[in-house]
Specification:
This protein has 3 domains: about 1-265, Type I PLP-dependent aspartate aminotransferase-like (Major domain) (Aspartate Aminotransferase, domain 2); about 270-385, Alpha-Beta Complex (Aspartate Aminotransferase, domain 1), CATH 3.90.1150.10; about 395-490, Roll (Ubiquitin-like (UB roll)), CATH 3.10.20. A hairpin with a 2-residue loop joins strand 15 (about 410) and strand 16 (about 410-415). The chain is about 35% helix and about 20% strand. It has 13 helices and 20 strands. The structure holds pyridoxal-5'-phosphate.
């Protein structure tokens, strides 16, 4: 199995993450900060150690500025809704994730004014000048996505940070796709709010995320409740991190997150970054040389996170994703990736793209096998409608037959089409269609060589011919409905 969906969540996790979580739950499972018995203290130490490690990773001024959240979505909601009030103005881009778009949409409905900047290049870069031009007296926040989860294009946050600092505006970054995989320094990049997942690049478990809150920010709380200190106060304490961490934190997840970040420090962020970048470059280079592929990435590898998108001509992204999974055991994601606006910008809406996102545990062999598999799929499209058999046309009069298919060959999408044919039989019709479209080779119907397709089905008026040879002689008449479906596309790599 090859896992290439690290942009959704990283997998596998380092062995130490599994072990730490197992040990935590067995031996340190008290409630951190609630009580002074040894299990509660042990749990608290683990939580605070993780806080320190995460703070170090992003160069936060103080550990307390790292707030544990459920995921990146939670962190984005806390930042946006804690900051923006009706009448405020916020600037963002069109390439973000729904986790950023939807809270902004809700705030917009409540009276916050939102400017959504379009990228100034086809790759999807948002110009710092455009940000500066959009700033008004009411602008309270600029919020940008560090790397697109569709194309992996990395935005120049250090340039945005300079502008926002200059105009005394709060700068928030969605670093879901970069934290733990790409160096981020909140101080030198002038980032005031940094939201990220713990379960992606930081190699922690699901249910973990972080919001870094910088010194310039005073966020309102979205939740109030029990904190691990100041029990005597009636109101929510103002101190960080307690102000924003009401209720029992996900201490088990945080223990795993700590192990993930330790692993990153032990391996070295630079090494992880270099390996992932090497694999990503390999993917881009390899896909670039396969014909009939549209590739959506940055042109410059230095501006590319380990996330890339592509489409294969003649296939829907969902089909390619399913073939990669079912026939080649490659886990890729297909569709809109929760970022419809990014696809509108790319011109890939509404079907989306196929996304490959390698991680530190992928190998060069994984990438080579993936490229081979994509090449096979592309070749299969070219041979999708192919017959070697020379078939005779029996009928003297042309008849109209509806052909329905999940095959879509270039310039000839068969999905529900009326075909005028002189063919007297199903076999002849197939041959006629093949010849018409200059598809002359044998793979599709030839079971001897038929390693391109492991399963297909042919129907005439709803009757299925599982074995195509049995159906070839079936006579056709005016108004018949023929269905040609590939069920499991190319037999695997
Ligand atoms: C750019 C971006 N932002 C936010 C999120 C949401 O992350 P989470 O699933 O941790 O809430 C994702 C997840 O894929 C993402 O790619």
């Amino acid at each position: 199995m090859i896992y290439l969906d690290n942009a959704a969540t990283s997998w596998p996790k380092p062995e130490s993450v599994y072990q730490t979580m197992d040990e935590f739950l067995r031996t340190k499972g008290g409630n951190p900060g609630r009580g002074s018995h040894s299990l509660a203290v042990a749990a608290r130490e683990v939580v605070e150690e993780t806080r320190m490690l995460v703070a170090r990773l992003i160069n936060a001024e103080e550990n307390e500025r790292v707030i544990f959240t459920l995921n990146c979505t939670d962190a984005l909601n806390m930042g946006l809704k804690g900051m923006l009030k009706p009448g405020d103005h916020v600037i963002t881009s069109c390439i973000g994730h729904n986790s950023l778009f939807r809270p902004l949409k809700k705030l917009e409905q409540q009276g916050v004014r939102v400017t959504r900047l379009s990228p100034h290049s086809r790759e999807g870069f948002v110009s710092p000048d455009d940000i500066e031009k959009a700033i008004t007296q009411q602008t309270k926040l600029v919020v940008m996505t560090h790397a697109s989860n569709v194309t992996g294009v990395i935005q120049p946050i250090e340039e945005y940070g300079e502008i926002t600092r200059h105009h005394n505006i709060i700068f928030m970054v969605d670093a879901a796709q970069t934290a733990g995989r790409h160096p981020i320094d909140v101080q030198s990049d002038n980032v005031d709010l940094l939201a990220f997942s713990g379960h992606k690049g930081l190699l922690g478990p699901p249910g973990t995320g972080v919001l870094y809150i910088g010194e310039r920010v005073d966020l309102d709380t979205l939740r109030e409740g029990g904190t691990s200190s100041y029990s005597e106060l009636e109101e929510q304490p103002l101190d960080l991190p307690y102000r924003y961490e009401s209720g029992t934190v996900n201490s088990l997840g945080i223990s795993g997150l700590g192990a993930g970040v330790k692993y990153i420090f032990n391996e070295g962020l630079e090494r992880i970054h270099t390996h992932e970048r090497y694999l990503t470059d390999m993917l881009i280079e390899g896909l670039f040389h396969i014909r009939r592929i549209a590739l959506y990435t940055a042109k410059n590898g230095a501006k590319q996170a380990p996330v890339i998108s592509f489409n294969v001509e003649g296939y829907e992204p969902g089909e390619v994703g399913a073939i990669l999974d079912q026939s080649f055991d490659i886990k890729a994601r297909a569709g809109l990736h929760c970022a419809p606006a990014a696809h509108r910008t790319l011109g890939t809406y509404p079907l989306g793209t196929v996304r490959l996102s390698p991680g530190y545990f992928n190998t060069v062999q994984d990438i080579n096998l993936t490229l081979d598999s994509v090449e096979k799929i592309v070749e299969a499209t070219i041979h999708k409608f192919v017959s070697k058999k020379k078939l005779k046309i029996h009928s003297d009069h042309p008849v109209k037959i509806t052909v329905e298919s999940n095959l879509s060959i270039p310039n000839f999408d068969l999905n529900e089409r009326d075909v005028e044919t002189q063919s007297g039989t199903l076999g002849a019709l197939l041959g006629e269609l093949s010849n018409k479209h200059e598809l002359t080779e044998a793979e599709f119907f030839d079971s001897e060589q038929g390693n391109l397709y492991s399963d297909y089905a042919v129907y005439v008026n709803g009757w299925s011919y599982k074995n195509i040879a049995d159906g070839l002689g079936t006579p056709l008449k005016e108004g018949d409905k023929v269905g040609i479906y590939l069920n499991i596309l190319p037999a695997g790599g």
